[in-house]
Design a protein that fits this description.
By secondary structure, the chain is α/β, with parallel strands linked by helices. It contains ten helices and 21 strands. It has an eight-stranded mixed β-sheet, with helices on both faces. A hairpin with a 2-residue loop joins strand 19 and strand 20.
């Protein structure tokens, strides 16, 4: 990998955005032989004394297979990977829904991994790609013609490419340079994440509670540790985040029914706003959007990262299969990518938003209906297998 700065450089693709999705996109494109520029910052090192990254993701089987093809999965520290063999979902009455990898005849339901572990492995893989120029720089302007796109950097240098990929998050700069229409609905909730040492083993089980319109999940980490994801109403979240570590831990013990015994908070809680965000188009002339730049969903199903990685897989496969006479910014190719992603994205948005709406409805009638629904699904093995197959990607 070259760290070069010149007045003008030419590439086949420029990837803007340095999260997991952007770096995976840059790596995937270089591995199919493209010359790529990546505008991103390297992964930050963990703070001294911090054992776990508070950002964790549930990687589906399809995401695991993709990272394996990139030769990133094999480089991960196996002692920091936690498989999920079971998932238990509790309604806000007595209903319970149990998903089992054994019953679904799959090796595992998901893998729980810290974001920093995957990002550092991606960084290491990117450093060995001779086709990649990695620039720690910001894009300042985008000019698109029929022949190429030109990205101007903050220092005045320019990058010319057939395609620009926006992987720069929910507030995407790349998307803002196009005429895409964004619709955003604030859930009036904050996602709170923190990691805990558990007094009782998690048993490789992810546990989730729906309570009072909020969603609380405890995901298994390697060893006797767990990662909390609490989607709380904004006012309640502010109250939780203002608590002392001891008060917050006691509240988590209460809301989880002391299922994990005595807890010890090992990474301080932090919050981020939750919203549903849709984009009317994933493409523009010589531009393709992936990840949060293309869609945002509620985290209650833990599928946001998997959805973004499936964007990258689809885009890479579309470009790799192009006819010899087309360049990778050809509008016909980009429309193929967009069509390939619409159904998956729409299905996941409807499912997560529908669940959120269902459990946010007040009143005893709504509570009875949704808990009866959970019980009904729990009694239908074929339905549960179908849900697992879709969650696995």
């Amino acid at each position: 990998m070259l760290f070069m700065r010149g007045n003008s450089q030419t590439f086949q693709a420029v990837v803007v955005g340095g999260g997991l999705v952007g770096k995976a996109a840059a790596l995937a494109l270089t591995q199919i032989g493209m010359r790529v520029a990546l505008l991103a910052q390297p992964a930050s090192s963990p703070a001294p004394g911090v054992r776990f990254d508070s950002r964790v993701y549930a990687f589906s089987s399809s995401s695991q297979a993709f990272l394996e093809r990139l030769r990133v999965w094999q480089a991960l520290d196996a002692t920091r990977i936690a498989p999920v063999y079971d998932m238990r979902v509790f309604g806000d009455a007595q209903a319970e829904l149990h998903f089992s990898a054994f019953q679904a005849a799959v090796p595992q339901l998901a893998w729980i991994i810290e974001s920093s572990q995957v990002e550092q492995a991606l960084d290491a893989a990117l450093r060995f790609q001779p086709q990649l120029n990695w620039l720690d720089a910001r894009a300042q302007a985008l000019e698109v013609t029929s022949e190429h796109a030109v990205v101007t950097l903050d220092d005045g240098d320019t990058l010319s490419a057939a395609l620009v990929i926006g992987a720069d998050g929910a507030h995407s700069w790349v998307r803002a340079q196009t005429d895409a229409t964004v619709k955003r609905r604030d859930y009036q909730q904050t996602g709170i994440v923190a990691n805990f040492s558990l007094g009782k083993p998690h048993g490789e089980t992810a546990t989730q509670w729906f309570t009072g319109g909020e969603v609380v999940a405890m995901l298994p980490l390697a060893g006797d540790y767990g990662s909390l994801v609490w989607s709380a109403h904004t006012a309640h979240a502010d109250e939780l985040l203002s608590m002392s570590p001891e008060q917050f831990t006691a509240e988590v013990e209460r809301i989880t029914g002391e299922r994990f015994g005595a807890l010890e908070c090992v990474t301080p809680p932090r919050g981020f706003p939750l919203a549903l965000q849709t984009v009317d188009r994933l493409i523009a002339p010589r531009v393709a959007l992936v990840g949060d730049a293309a869609h945002m969903i509620h985290p209650l199903a833990g599928q946001g990262m998997n959805l973004g990685l499936r964007d990258v897989v689809s885009l890479t496969e579309t470009l790799a299969a192009k006819e010899a006479f087309r360049d990778i910014g050809d509008p016909i190719l980009l429309r193929r990518y967009e069509r390939s992603r619409r159904e998956d994205i729409q299905r996941m948005m409807v499912a997560t938003d529908g669940l959120h709406r269902l459990f946010a409805l007040p009143g005893p009638i709504a509570k009875g209906i949704r808990n009866a629904g959970l019980a009904l699904v729990g009694a239908q093995p074929q339905v549960k297998r179908w849900l697992v197959s879709h969650a696995l990607g």
